[in-house]
């Protein structure tokens, strides 16, 4: 090997070195795989220590152990001279370690500022998060405009990485781990990040830099440690190794020819011809690919090259002419593109390339089902044979084909995607960043596969942000600027400097492929829109009721509507708590009935003070017990929230029927009068509901607990990654829900007057509808207690208005179902309005 002239250092830390990060003798085994084998690594204060290796070498696993998110089977972790004896993200962060992960740990429904806030080791005020986050974002990427109040789901990948970097730097870390931090950054921001890293190291921070971009490693690192097959293969001074030597150490063998030989240019047959293609963000693009050629697309992100590629794949509408092997290919439909032989290798493999929860075999074969099925029936043996062949051809490293593909390294996931696409035997391959986040060895394999298919007559088009990759792999490269091809290079002119120069000089301003929506669109996608829209609905219903019968505005009628709203509002608050975490609670309705039944034994005329006190205590204890049971079934038992709370629903209803087979036991008249007290025509219970809604709304939006609760619902994995105990917050949500449902039983008592097991059953659907109408996401992470109260008021109005316009009571259910469907659909659409693509 050419690296034999470089001598590795002893990686064992000395006492003078351990103030930064030290891992000694770390081993970690997963089912069927020894991920780390007795690895020792240390990063000293003031140095940048690069950790390099192929995908699956163990780099991210080692740093996950350092960050406390993964427990080693053996070995020790020291951060700032303190032993991380009980690994946890919170403990590692408290000791001064911050990590920028390969996949940003950001909750999509939270704002950028909120995501940054919840990752901090010390509490901060959520209401001041914007002012605190703004300068940190500018420092992390000062030429990319990012509003701290924008929700993460509206960001492009580059912006998400800038937020992830800013979040880590905000912790003022003593140890900073960067795992592939530049994969989605363009040149200007890469240069800025590297400068910031050098500045942090100069100030005494120990920096661990993980990257497959060897030129960046050599430019920034003081020392380099190589991992291969889960073992440390040596630590070297960065200045002692050439780029080729680093590549050879990573691969464990010389890789003298990263790029395969190019086409000799003798073929004249055109396999793909595009003429005058127009679409969103690109216009009048022509492209030809001859047999044996690979054609590249370059340009600053957002200048139309990705939109052009996706239009060719049928993912977005376009107009123009496309022919494949001389036959016209239809546009605008993925199905039509596939029939024409056009196959797309997506750039975002985790979202579009794989189904992470499915096994490797299914992911390898899912795009070519027709080859191993007959009359729509799957042929398992043929499927397994194809999966084995594909896995062997692409050298996919997996314990077995039955493990979830999401457990594989990024490079092996990329091989699965590419193999799955190529198994369709396409005539055209459209590859979007085919080597993003993969090591040099895997890159070389992918290049060879693409070249082999090109030589066999398949048209290959590659989009890449790496100019070196394009110049080394492609026969011709088109550089995009503002939606048009600004320059084309081939032959001797096809060089990295020429491509880079055209990218820089063709346009002076980066144009995002996502544009800001109108003010109306932004408002509709925001937190206050449901409040305004439901408020308008309430006014319109009131006008309809008044038009039908002027008595609608009488104090008696309005007081009755508000009383019913208070009951529904309280249980809706509880439902909102659980839905914020991504769950649902079907047991709230029989719980309300059970409370009424229980209190019909204790809160009756003639009951002693002791009995009454026990009755009130029993109400709270019942709520706590039911909420804890629901949480245990969901979090500890692993049941889905629907199944778990449905089981509780049936159990609670059974208990109520055992205690009161028929209605009986009259609630104290004095207590009913107290609960029914009004100020003017407004029930006190409604005033309590309004005050409680305001308090809960403030806690949700302006406190650390509220932000973390929403983070758990938006992305539990991201929440765990930043040290949030998702189990704790779901426990809080389920117990809070049941307690609020139990409290909703109090005004229900005044309306029913006796122990009736069926008293609360109508509140199950209506509580869900009130929350959904009020703007909550059924998937978690977003909602409003004020919205839930307004939703409850709207539904209570519906009941009254249908009576005044003399509609059958069945219409109440029709309208309830319609309101639920419309609100959920409107919410989903409003999220799309935040960004125009």
From TrEMBL:
<feature type="transmembrane region" description="Helical">
    <location>
        <begin position="616"/>
        <end position="634"/>
    </location>
</feature>
<dbReference type="InterPro" id="IPR003593">
    <property type="entry name" value="AAA+_ATPase"/>
</dbReference>
<keyword id="KW-0547">Nucleotide-binding</keyword>
<feature type="transmembrane region" description="Helical">
    <location>
        <begin position="641"/>
        <end position="659"/>
    </location>
</feature>
<dbReference type="Pfam" id="PF02653">
    <property type="entry name" value="BPD_transp_2"/>
</dbReference>
<keyword id="KW-0067">ATP-binding</keyword>
<feature type="compositionally biased region" description="Low complexity">
    <location>
        <begin position="1"/>
        <end position="18"/>
    </location>
</feature>
<keyword id="KW-1133">Transmembrane helix</keyword>
<feature type="region of interest" description="Disordered">
    <location>
        <begin position="1"/>
        <end position="20"/>
    </location>
</feature>
<feature type="transmembrane region" description="Helical">
    <location>
        <begin position="761"/>
        <end position="779"/>
    </location>
</feature>
<feature type="transmembrane region" description="Helical">
    <location>
        <begin position="786"/>
        <end position="805"/>
    </location>
</feature>
<feature type="transmembrane region" description="Helical">
    <location>
        <begin position="811"/>
        <end position="828"/>
    </location>
</feature>
<feature type="transmembrane region" description="Helical">
    <location>
        <begin position="552"/>
        <end position="574"/>
    </location>
</feature>
<keyword id="KW-0813">Transport</keyword>
<dbReference type="InterPro" id="IPR027417">
    <property type="entry name" value="P-loop_NTPase"/>
</dbReference>
<dbReference type="Pfam" id="PF00005">
    <property type="entry name" value="ABC_tran"/>
</dbReference>
<feature type="transmembrane region" description="Helical">
    <location>
        <begin position="523"/>
        <end position="546"/>
    </location>
</feature>
<dbReference type="InterPro" id="IPR017871">
    <property type="entry name" value="ABC_transporter-like_CS"/>
</dbReference>
<dbReference type="InterPro" id="IPR001851">
    <property type="entry name" value="ABC_transp_permease"/>
</dbReference>
<feature type="transmembrane region" description="Helical">
    <location>
        <begin position="679"/>
        <end position="702"/>
    </location>
</feature>
<feature type="transmembrane region" description="Helical">
    <location>
        <begin position="731"/>
        <end position="749"/>
    </location>
</feature>
<protein>
    <recommendedName>
        <fullName>ABC transporter domain-containing protein</fullName>
    </recommendedName>
</protein>
<feature type="domain" description="ABC transporter">
    <location>
        <begin position="267"/>
        <end position="507"/>
    </location>
</feature>
<dbReference type="InterPro" id="IPR050107">
    <property type="entry name" value="ABC_carbohydrate_import_ATPase"/>
</dbReference>
<keyword id="KW-1003">Cell membrane</keyword>
<keyword id="KW-0812">Transmembrane</keyword>
<keyword id="KW-0472">Membrane</keyword>
<feature type="domain" description="ABC transporter">
    <location>
        <begin position="21"/>
        <end position="254"/>
    </location>
</feature>
<dbReference type="InterPro" id="IPR003439">
    <property type="entry name" value="ABC_transporter-like_ATP-bd"/>
</dbReference>
<keyword id="KW-0677">Repeat</keyword>
């Amino acid at each position: 090997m050419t690296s034999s002239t470089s001598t590795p250092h002893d990686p064992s830390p000395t006492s003078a070195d351990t103030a930064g990060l030290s891992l000694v003798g770390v081993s970690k085994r997963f089912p069927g795989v020894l991920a780390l084998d007795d690895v020792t690594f240390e990063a000293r204060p003031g140095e940048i220590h690069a950790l390099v290796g192929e995908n699956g070498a163990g780099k991210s696993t080692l740093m996950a152990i350092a960050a406390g998110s993964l427990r080693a089977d053996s070995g020790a972790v020291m951060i700032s001279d303190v032993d991380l004896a009980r690994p946890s993200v919170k403990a590692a962060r408290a000791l001064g370690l911050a990590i920028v992960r390969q996949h940003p740990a950001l909750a999509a429904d939270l704002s950028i500022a909120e995501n940054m806030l919840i990752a901090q080791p010390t509490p901060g005020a959520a209401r001041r998060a914007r002012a605190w986050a703004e300068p940190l974002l500018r420092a992390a990427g000062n030429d990319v405009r990012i509003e701290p109040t924008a929700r993460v789901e509206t960001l492009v990948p580059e912006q998400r990485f800038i937020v992830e970097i800013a979040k880590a730097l905000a912790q003022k870390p003593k140890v900073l781990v960067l795992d592939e931090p530049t994969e989605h950054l363009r040149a200007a921001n890469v240069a800025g990040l590297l400068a910031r890293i050098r500045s942090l190291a100069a100030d005494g921070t120990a920096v661990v830099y993980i990257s497959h971009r060897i030129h960046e490693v050599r430019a920034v690192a003081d020392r380099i440690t190589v991992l291969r097959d889960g073992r440390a293969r040596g630590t070297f001074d960065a200045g002692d190794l050439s780029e080729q030597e680093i590549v050879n150490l990573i691969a464990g063998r010389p890789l003298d020819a990263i790029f395969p030989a190019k086409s000799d240019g003798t073929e004249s047959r055109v396999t793909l011809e595009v003429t005058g293609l127009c679409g969103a963000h690109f216009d009048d693009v022509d492209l030809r690919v001859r047999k044996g050629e690979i054609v590249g697309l370059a340009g600053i992100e957002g200048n139309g090259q990705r939109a052009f590629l996706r239009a060719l794949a049928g993912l977005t509408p376009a107009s123009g002419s496309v022919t494949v092997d001389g036959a016209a290919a239809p546009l605008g439909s993925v199905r039509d593109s596939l029939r024409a032989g056009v196959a797309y290798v997506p750039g975002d493999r985790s979202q579009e390339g794989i189904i992470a929860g499915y096994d490797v075999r299914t992911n390898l074969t899912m795009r070519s089902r027709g080859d191993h099925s007959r009359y729509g029936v799957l042929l398992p043996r043929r499927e397994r044979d194809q999966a084995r062949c594909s896995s062997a051809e692409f050298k996919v490293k997996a314990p077995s084909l039955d493990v979830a593909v999401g457990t594989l390294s990024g490079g092996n996931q990329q091989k699965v995607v590419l193999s799955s696409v190529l198994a369709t035997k396409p005539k055209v391959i459209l590859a979007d960043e085919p080597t993003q986040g993969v090591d040099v060895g895997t890159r070389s394999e992918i290049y060879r596969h693409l070249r082999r298919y090109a030589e066999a007559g398949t048209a290959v088009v590659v989009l890449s942000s790496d100019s070196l990759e394009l110049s080394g792999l492609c026969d011709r490269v088109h550089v995009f600027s503002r939606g048009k091809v600004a320059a084309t290079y081939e032959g001797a002119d096809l060089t990295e400097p020429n491509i880079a120069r055209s990218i820089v000089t063709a346009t002076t301003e980066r144009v995002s492929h996502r544009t800001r929506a109108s003010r109306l669109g932004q408002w509709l996608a925001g937190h206050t829109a449901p409040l305004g829209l439901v408020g308008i609905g309430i006014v319109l219903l009131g006008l309809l009721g008044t038009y039908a019968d002027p008595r609608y505005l009488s104090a008696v009628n309005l007081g009755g509507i508000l009383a019913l709203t208070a009951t529904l509002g309280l249980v809706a608050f509880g439902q909102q708590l659980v839905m914020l975490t991504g769950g649902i609670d079907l047991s709230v309705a029989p719980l309300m009935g059970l409370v009424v039944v229980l209190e019909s034994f204790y809160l009756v005329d003639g009951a002693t003070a002791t009995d009454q006190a026990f009755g009130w205590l029993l109400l709270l204890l019942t709520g706590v017990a039911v909420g804890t049971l629901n949480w245990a079934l969901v979090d500890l038992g692993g049941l889905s929230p629907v199944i778990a709370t449905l089981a509780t629903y049936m159990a609670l209803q059974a208990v109520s029927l055992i205690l009161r087979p028929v209605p009986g036991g009259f609630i104290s008249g004095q207590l009913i009068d107290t609960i029914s007290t009004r100020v003017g025509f407004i029930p006190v219970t409604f005033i309590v509901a309004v005050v409680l809604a305001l308090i809960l709304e403030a806690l949700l939006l302006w406190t650390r607990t509220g932000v973390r609760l929403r983070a758990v619902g938006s992305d539990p994995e991201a929440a765990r990654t930043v040290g949030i105990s998702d189990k704790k917050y779901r426990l809080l949500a389920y117990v809070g829900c049941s307690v609020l449902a139990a409290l909703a039983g109090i005004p229900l008592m005044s309306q029913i007057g006796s122990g009736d097991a069926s008293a609360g059953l109508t509140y199950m659907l209506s509580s869900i509808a009130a929350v959904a109408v009020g703007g909550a996401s059924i998937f978690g992470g977003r909602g409003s207690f004020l919205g839930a109260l307004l939703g409850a008021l709207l539904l209570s109005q519906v009941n009254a208005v249908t009576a005044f316009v003399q509609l059958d009571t069945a219409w109440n259910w029709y309208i309830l179902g319609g309101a639920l469907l419309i609100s959920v659909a409107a919410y989903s659409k409003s999220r799309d309005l935040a960004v125009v693509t």
